[in-house]
Amino acid sequence: MQPIRAAVVVNPVSGNGSTGKLWPVIASAMKQEGFNFEYRFTGAPGEATVLTSNFLSQGNELIISVGGDGTVNEVINGFFLAEEAVRKKVSLGIISSGTGRDLIRTLGTPLNFTEAARRIYRNPSCPVDAGKVKYNGVSGQEVRYFLNVAGMGLDGDIVNRVNRTSKALGGFVSFLGGTVVSLIRYQNKKMKITVDGKEICNEPITFIAVANGRYYGGGMFIAPHALMDDGSFDIIIARNLSKSDLLLNLPKVYRGKHLDHPRITSLRGRVINVESDDCPLLNLDGEQPGCASAEMEIQPQALNLRA
Predict the structure, then answer these.
(1) Half-sphere exposure (Cβ direction) of 127: Cα atoms closer than 13 Å
(2) What pLDDT does residue 15 have?
(3) 41 contact partners, CB below 8 Å, separation of at least 6
(4) Rounded to the nearest 10 degrees, what angle do helices 154-162 and 171-185 cross at?
(5) Which of 149, 262, 285, 302 has its CA 20 to 30 A from that of 213?
(6) Distance (Å, rounded) from C-alpha 115 to C-alpha 117?
(7) Cα–Cα dist 243/186, whole Å
């Protein structure tokens, strides 16, 4: 095979700082597979988006994200800064070394760096959907894209809590701990939720997950039937659950057995509007950029993925 011209965006602080330490091993695996690549380390939040945009303007065929789900989120937002004609010519590869590793659970990407690099190098590109979100940010209404899951309510509170604490014990323990603490303190938020123009509910909501992928929160199997290339979101709404109900049913979420609960609504849709005066926090691929009110819209076959 001809060497693939690639650019690599590396977040050295992801995985509680392990990515920077492991980068020589990852780089060696990529060279062994035959990649011709340049790389840059991120130095601040949001920098992966800028680096990706710069790499796209330089004519690279492949952009590889090395880090966690949040790094992938920043990288894909760099893709969306480019014109569609440019974006469609470039593929995204993912080598995961972060904490949550939820996206690669859906994709089936190996944790082993050599195997992950081999798959990126040898597999063809496949088009996948993404999500576009308009939400209330620091400077007013902002727009951002996501690849895995967007959520509001309890999950936004959990992500906000987890991202402010150490993740040294790994994704599962970090998110589980954050979940338990948030469950104790969280108050359900009144939300009016509309899907494809039809009002679904207007009541206290525990959380809403708008899923392109299947997992979030460090291994929660939130949307067992979600597909990343079907042009639609899987939407999971938890309606006014009590704290005891949440704690009793939490193990079911990790197994994907929660959808039969009488206060869980599951449906599919392309455009989701959430209106709320209670400012429920937003979760985008494990990042917490703002709050509702918000609109989420599917972007069919928006990215080419090699994984």
Answers:
(1) 9
(2) 82
(3) 10, 11, 12, 20
(4) 130
(5) 262
(6) 5
(7) 9
Beta-strand relationship, 62-67 and 91-96: parallel
Q: What is the DSSP string of 99-143?
A: S--HHHHHHT--SSHHHHHHHHHHSPPEEEEEEEEEEEETTEEEE
What CATH number has the domain bearing residue 148? 2.60.200.40
Q: Same domain for 66 and 105? A: yes
- What confidence score (pLDDT) does residue 165 get? 64
How far apart are alpha carbons 133 and 272 in whole angstroms? 9
Q: Give pLDDT < 70 ranges for the chain.
A: 1-2, 163-180
The answer to whether 290 and 282 have CB atoms below 8 angstroms apart is: yes
Do 264 and 237 contact (CB within 8 A), yes or no?
A: yes
What is the C-alpha separation between 71 and 46, in angstroms, rounded? 9
pLDDT digits (tens, 9 = 90+) for 51-68: 999 999 998 989 999 999
Environment class of 197 (CB within 10 Å of its CB; exposed 0-12, middle 13-18, buried 19+): exposed
Q: Which domain holds residue 275?
A: 130-306
Both tokens assigned to 229: 């290339």
CA distance 100 to 96: 9
- Indicate if 110 and 179 belong to the same structural domain: no
Q: Final residue of a domain: which of 123, 148, 176?
A: 123
Distance CA 90, CA 79 (A): 9
Please give the radius of gyration of the chain, using alpha carbons only, rounded to the nearest integer: 19
